[in-house]
Every structure is written in structure tokens, then in C-alpha cells.
Amino acid sequence: MDVNRRDVLKVLLGGTAVTAIAGSTSHVAKAAPDIIQPLDDAVGLLYDATKCIGCRACMPACENANGLVPDRGSSHGLYMQPEALNSQTKNLIKLYVAADGHERSFIKQQCMHCVDPACVSGCPMQALHKEPHGVVGWDPSLCIGCRYCQIACPFNIPKFEWYRVNPKIVKCELCRHIVGKTAAQPACTRVCPTHAVIYGKRADLLAEAHRRIQEKPGYYFEDRVYGETEGGGTQCLILAHVEYSKLGLPKMGPQSNASRVRRVTNVIYQGFLTPVVIYGGLVAIVRDRWKDHLAHVAQERQQHDKGMHP
Amino acid sequence: MTERWEKCIRLKEPLLTRPFKALLGLAAFAMLLGILREVSGLGYVTGLNDGYAWGLFKNWNVTALTALGSGGYAVAVMAWIFNDRKFHPIMRTAVLTSLVGYGTGMLALGFDVGRPWNFIHILNPKTWNHHSVLLEVAVCMTAYVILALNFENMPPFLERMYKSGDPQRSERALKIFRYMQKSFPFWIALAFVLPSMHQSSLGSLMFLAGDRVHPLWQTARLPLLYLVMAYILGFACVLLVLILSTYVWRLGWDGAILGRLAVVMSWLTLWWLVIQFVDLAYRGVFEMAFTFDRYSIVFLLQTILLLVPAQALQIESVRSKPGNLFRLTLVLIIGGLLYRFTPTSIAFIPLGNYTYFPSVIEILMSAGFTALAVVIFLFAVKRFAILPASRGKIAAEAAIRPFDTL
Amino acid sequence: MHVRVDLSLPVPPTVRPGLDRRTFLKVVAQATAAIGLTSAMAAKVVAAVEKGVRPSVIWLHFQECTGCTESLLRTSHPGLAEVLFDLISLDYHETLMAAAGHQAEEALESAIRKNAGKYILVVEGAVPTKENGIYMQIAQKTGLDILKHVAASAGAIVAIGSCASWGGVPSAEPNPTGASGINKILEGKMVVTLPGCPANPYILFGTLLQFVALGKLPELDELGRPKFAYGRTIHEHCPRRAHFDSGRFAEEFGDEGHRLGYCLYKLGCKGPSTHASCSTLQFCEVVDAWPIGLGHPCFGCTEQSVAFRVPMLKPAEIVRPTPPSTYAPVAAPQGFINPLATAVGGLIGGALLGAGWMASRGMKEKPDSPSHTPPPNQNSDSSDKE
């Protein structure tokens, strides 16, 4: 028994050693970089809630541009009245009003097109993937409908067509089917009457946001842009004068969840090295045991046969 | 007098008992409901919504119940790695529970995915996202069921083929079995590596959700905790099945095997609890366990359901009484399943104001899948030599040479 | 043939025969602005008129009430008809021309011959098609034949009014004469349709103006309607839209909401499904001189699927819904817990626990203790297989 336990411990220690050593030196671990930087030509939106008047021209524009059937909610067919983003609504304006009524702000909800998206990291088949310019797109030919993206997204953006036999994942894709082809910008930014939401390169939008903050110090919440670093950074940036979490924007540190997962899985797997090493070790141990087992069985049978035919 | 389980036997009990028929009815009904789900859509059949996109099928039938189905894995590790020979008579039972547990889990998964026709792309590694934990779970689980579990469950089947009377079939059965014996270490090592990977990955799944899982459960140690819990629940399931079987079909009471299973399970649980609490302290969220909000209460409940049985089973006089053993194992299973289930659902807090409870059809389908597992188990033990029995029960329908090596 | 308005018709005293140049320029500016043409275009219109280029217009009547002609003539500030007739040469118009009988028929034929390929054909009224169109004949020629003959060499074809555009009143169920819009009859030809009952005369004016000034027709939608007039629904430009968006409706004629001028949607207003310009253009150059302005719901006179088909008081289908004046809160509640499901779940869970408890009660002693005498063991068989 002692010998055998030693073998086992050897394998376990061996595996751990591989993990530790390889983790610090192997280029395999670094092949999947932990921190992803935004692309140079990443595009996105800058939504300034202080300029938004809540006209919601962007909502019918988005429905038309994307061929969506408006969600009439509980309005008995009268209005386009979705309660939340859903499989018929890729873009939504909501109103936040403080309980005492002294603070209010509109907020535009749509996919944030993260720099290092959790949905892209989790999607098993790469149906959700980064398109040119960092737009997060969905490919129906690959999606298996597992909905891991819905579990992963910190903003709760991907929506699923629950009531269809051929269900899609529905979310803003920055009008990538028309931008650069029949339009220069997404539908929502095209119709916004106050230019509260604008489209452009993320670098330019970030510069513009900082310029606005500098122009009016103390006006925007904490003098910062939401999305500059949140969750690894998002390509759709938000400026507002009220606390961002009140607008439904979660508080997030600068590390993306996707990079956290990559770190853990890389350490454990070392690019498949660990499983292979452990497999090899186990084969060696089991072979040993198997020989023992066959010997034991042969012995037992001998004794049994002797007992049967003395 | 304690019996000793020595061989595996085929039960000659009648198959179509009242309970069997009831379970079969429930399983068949669940399949019909499954057809309904395929022709209408998940929204009509389940209570799932955009906030809680995963429900009973994924979180219960796959994440929770495949832990119960890790019996084959856990017992095999004891028998083949730690060389505990006394577990060989229960190997066939254990791997059968794994097969039905995983099989029905995969069935539930099949009904749950929204666009199953794209599963064909799984065969093309170019479309794989290597960073995706879910891909790892899917590929690994499928490989495990198709390769390892089928391999492990073949001996009783081959045995029956051998005894069929047809010389050609006997010849083939023997040939296949000889191959199995020669290549045994390679297949079994696979049966260890694969479930280690995916049972831990089932834990890593929720790691991607970050702050959306309550801090009492969200940790980088999720893979480790899920893996150890798989062992624990695997032992527990085998214990449960064996205890029930000895009473229903009078297989004889092998206190040594059952006692050892209980001891290992109990130690593992205690260690698991230590790891969990050390992790809580390390992350600085220990106080959250005692705020007595709904999350804290679930956490404490889960801890108590694990701690009490684990402690009790440490005591020889307690665990030697069959009634105690059974009840304590059952309580521990509830606690363990609660742990596996919680991070995906109860402790999952999506943005917005979402509530979720499974619909009636969802519950019936989930229950039906489990009923199907039991039905297949009952069918198998009454058709093949699987369950262990002591000398007094060994009979004509016992496992025969050479198949009884496995 | 230059046609002048017959002064013996009742005419408001403010209208003077002929127009001074200043008023003419004003009208042209207004009209071009109304149809979205620039002031540069307006200059072109003036230049065209001064050059004396006046395209020939042939106006045919079929199954109609002459309401479209009447509405054209009833414009008064200024006399639009006069402006129109300075811009075009109305060579055939059964209501307005002085000729009759064979003289009229000759005028028609000569106009067709002289301006072949260049004249504008304006059609008022639907054309019956049942039994080869015998239900409407002039000089023993069926309307069908007349239409096809005159349309053959027309430079542009305009259908004015709902009747000519899609059949109008005569085509209402059961449509005994097979009344049809002219575009269905003139398959393959481009027909500008200006539905309305009556059509707003300014739309015709704008269309002809653009044709005269720029030599082309305005941009049309898939039914041949000029987008500048029919591109939007009444609902999209309704002065009462704010009431709709805020949920303020008149529930009954004469109730308080009605008297306060609230939205008439619940009284069956078909504005949301009707493409027309009445909400901005209105009628008779008097503000609020249109059905909704007077407190009566729109009945959708321009739309074939609505007018004379959908009952007056039946609520309209909203073709392109927009958000109301209220907003959803940032975290609106979603999903619900079905009590029946909790019951079923509880039952199953309880049943399993209960079964477990019951089973454990039978486990007070080991299964092989003396009190547990096994039944005669069918399994025992002395032969042990090798």
C-alpha cells in the first residue's frame, strides 16, 4: 500500500510541478494574452446622457434598420413599448428618476461592444466574435443556442428568441450590415436630433469625452467616462451626470472577466500540457494495478477451483 | 454476520413492477413533452427568460445530477489509483450509475440548446473557441460518454453476448473483451482525465459571470470545489443505490465496502468544507455567511446539510446502522446537490429585476429524465450481471470468467 | 386650346380674374415650398410660365362624383384653378369645357394628335371592368377603351382621387361593376396615383408644377403615390399626436375628452394606417378644416385596405408604432413565478423525501438478520458455471 501511495503522490506532484514551471516560463501560457488592448481602428458610440432629450427617435430607427418587429408590450398594440431589451428591441431609452425626484437622467441601453467581451470568450463555437473594427457580431450558422453569452455578459445584453423554433441571439451590432455599404453610421446616431449619441473611432470618442469633461469640471459624474476601463474597456462609452450604477451600468474593475477565466484555465491546462502529462502518469499507475489485479484474480480462481474439485 | 460481496449477479426479479411502470410512464411523458419543446420553442415550455437563461435542464440535470453520476469515476479512482481492491465487486454498479446519470444529463442538454442543428460544427475543431469553458465541458463530456463510459459498461453486455449460444457472437464477444483487457490502462486513464476536466470545468463555467454570482460562491477555486464535490456525490450515489438494492433485492449487507465508501465520502466532505471556508476567509467574505439574508441562509443550509452527515459518519457506531447510513447519505446528497446547483441559479444575480422559477413542463421533463435514468438502471440490473452479491446469493446468473475480471 | 374659368360660376368677391405678377410669384413660392422644391426651382417654374411653355392636359372622367374637380376649383386664396390654367393647357375636361357632343370628341382627338407623347393624362374616377366595361360608355365607347386609347400616347398619367387610384367608392363590396383603379388596367405603364376622397388639390398642383418646371415626376412610392404627400401617415403628423402618446383619448362623441380635442383613436380614427397629407395640408386653406380638426375620426379615404372596408368605429392598426410619452424604469421587473409550478415542484420534492424517509424506516436492521428471512431463493443453483 505504501509503495502505491507514493506512486500516486509522484504523479500529483509531477503534474503540479509541470503546471507551476510551465506557467512561469512557457510561451504557451503567454500565447493567449491575459490583457487585450482595443484595436487601433475600433469603433463605437459615445452617449452623453446630459444631451439626450428622450425623444427616442433612435428606437424606431433601429427597428427599421434591423428589420425588427416592434415590441408593443402591454399597450394593446398602440405603442412601441418594450420594458427591456429583448428579441425585438436592440436599443432602448430608459429614464432614471431618483426616489425624491431631484435627479433624473435618460440612459441608452445597447450592446457595449466590449474590448475583451465575456460573451466572445464564452461562446463555444465563436458564433459571437469580433468583427472588423472590434464590433461584436453574431453568426447564425455557428450558434448552437446554448445561451452561455447571456450568462456571461455583465450588461445582460444578448437576448434570445424564446418563442421561436429557429431562435436567434439578438443584440446591437452597430448596424454592421449597412455601415460602410449603404450608410456611413448606425441608424441611432444618424437620427439623434441633439447628437447625444455619436459614432466614431473609439480613440476619437474617448478624446472627445475627455474634452467635454475638461470643459466642465465637476459636471459629469466623477469626471470620468464609463467604459474607458470598466471590464477591460468598452467601445461604447457613456457620459452622465448621475451615478452610473443608478443607470443600470454595473460597477466593474479594469480587469475583464474573460481575462480572469483565461488566466485560470491557462494555469490549469497549460495549453493541454497538464492533461497529457497526467494521462501519461495515470496510464503508468493503472498498468501497474492492472497487472496486480490479474494476478489476484488468477490466484482467487485457482483457490476457488481447488475448493470445487479437491 | 457481515456478508462479503464477491461477484456480480443478474437479478431474476420481474421487470414490470408497479414502480417501474410508473417511472416508465413518467419518462415516456417527458419524451412527449420533449417533442412539444422541439416543435414550439423553449419559451413556451420553460420558465426561462433573458435574465435567467439557464434553468433546470442545464443547472440541475447537467451541473448537479452529473455529479451524482460521477460514481463510476470516484469508485474507479479508489479501486485503480489507490488500489483499494475491495471496491471491485461494486465497479459495475458504479459505472452503470455513471452511464445513466451522464446519459440522461446529455439528453437534457440536447433538449435545452436552442439551435441543435449547429451541433454538427462540434466535429470541426476550426470552429472551436479554445478559451470557452463550455466548449471544454461539451467536448469532454461527449468524449467521456462515448469512449470511456461505454468502454467501462461493456463487460456485462459482452458477457451476455458470450452466453447467447450463437458461436459467432460468443467468439466476437470474447475477442472484444480480450482487446479490452489488453488496452485497459489506456481507456481507464482516459476515464479519469476526462471527468476531472469537465467536472472542474462545470465549476469554471460560472467564473466567467464574475460579480453576477454572489461572493459567497464566486471564487477562482470553483473548479476545485466542483471536482471534489463530484467525488463526494459520486460516492454518495453509489452508497444510496447499493443500500436500496440490498434491501429491495436482498443482496446481503457488505459492511466493509459500504463502511469504507462512507468513510472516504465523509473525509472528503470535511476537507471540502475546510477548503471552502479557507477560501472564504482568504477572499475576505467570511462575514457574508452570517448576515442572514437569503444568500447567507442558503449558504448556511448547504453547509449544515454537508457538515452534519459528514461528522456523523465519522462515528463507527453511527454508520454501521443501515438506517442511519441511508438517511445521512441522503442528507449529504441534498447538501451537495444544493452546492452544485446554487452558483448557477440561486446565487446568480443578473442585472435588472428578473425572477425565474421553472414551469410545470420544465419540472416534469426534468423529473422524467431522472425517471428514465432509474428505468434504464432497473432494466440493466435485471438483464445483465451488474449488482454485487454475497456468496449465499451467487447463482447461475453470476458474472462468468473471463468477464468477471472487470 | 386655352380654357378660361367661366365667370358665371359662383366665385367669392375677393377673386379677381387673372392674377397680378406678385400674387403669382407668391403662390408659386408657397406651392414649391409645400412640395419640397427649392426657391431655385420656383424660379424655373416662373421662367417656364413666362416662356409660355404650357403642356397639354387631357382630363378624363369615369365612375366619379366630380368631387376631385370640385375641390380643385374650390381653392380661393388665390384662385388656384386660375394659376393652374396659366401653367397648363387644359385641352379636354368634361366638367369645365364649353364644348359638347361631337365637338368635344373632336377636341379630344385633335389634342391627342397634336401633343402625342407629350400630354399629361389626368384621370378622375374608377373604370368598370365587368362584362367588358359596358357599365360606363361615352359615345358608345366603353370607359375601358377610352382609357386605353388616350393613355396610349400620353406623356404622363396621373390618377386623381381614390376612385382612379384604386377603385374608391364604386369598388366597395360587392363591387357589382368591377370598378378598378386605372393602374391595374394600364399594366406596365407608370401611373402617378393621388388617392383621397377627394384628393387634396395642392397635391395635384405640386405634381404638375414639378413636371412643368423640371420635366419629371416627383419621387413615387410602390403604389405610385408621390412621397412628398403620401410618404407619411396622418398619425405621424397629426396635431393631436401628443394626446395619443400620452394616452388621452375621446371615448365617446361629445364627452369631455372630445370637447378638449383629445386623440380620436378610440373612436375609430384610421390615421395610423392612412398615408396622406391632410394633417399638415388640411383643406380649403382654413386651419383645422379637415376631419380630425373638426372632431371626426379620419376614415382612411386614401387607403384601399381601409376606406369603405373597415368599419368607421373599429380601431385602426398602427403601422409603425413609436414609444409613448412614458418611459420604462431602469430595472423593470421581468419573469414570474408560476404558483402551479411551485406546487408541482414541491410535491415531487416532498414525495422523494417522503419515499426516502419511508424506505429508511424499513432499514432498522440489516437485511440479512434472522428476522429478515429471505424468500426461497430462486437464484440458488448448485451448478457453478466455468
What does this structure look like?
Chain A is an alpha+beta fold. Chain A has two domains: 5-31 and 265-308; 43-250, Alpha-Beta Plaits (2-Layer Sandwich). In chain A, 37% of the residues lie in helices and 12% in strands. Chain A has nine helices and nine strands. Chain A has a three-stranded mixed sheet with strand order 8-1-9. A two-stranded antiparallel ribbon of chain A has the order 2-3. In chain A, strands 4-5 form a two-stranded antiparallel ribbon. In chain A, helix 1 (2-25) packs antiparallel against helix 9 (273-308). The longest helix of chain A has 36 residues, at 273-308. Chain B is mostly helical and 406 residues long. Chain B contains 13 helices and three strands; from the N terminus they run βααααααααααααβαβ. In chain B, strands 1-3 form a two-stranded antiparallel sheet. In chain B, helix 3 runs antiparallel to helix 5 and helix 3 (56-68) crosses helix 12. The longest helix of chain B is centred in the middle third of the chain and has 38 residues, at 167-204. Chain C is α/β, with parallel strands linked by helices and 386 residues long. In chain C, helix 1 (21-34) crosses helix 2 (39-50) and helix 2 (39-50) crosses helix 9. The longest helix of chain C is centred in the last third of the chain and has 23 residues, at 339-361. Chain C starts with 20 loop residues before the first helix and ends in a 25-residue tail after the last helix. Strand 2 of chain B pairs parallel with strand 10 (333-334) of chain C.
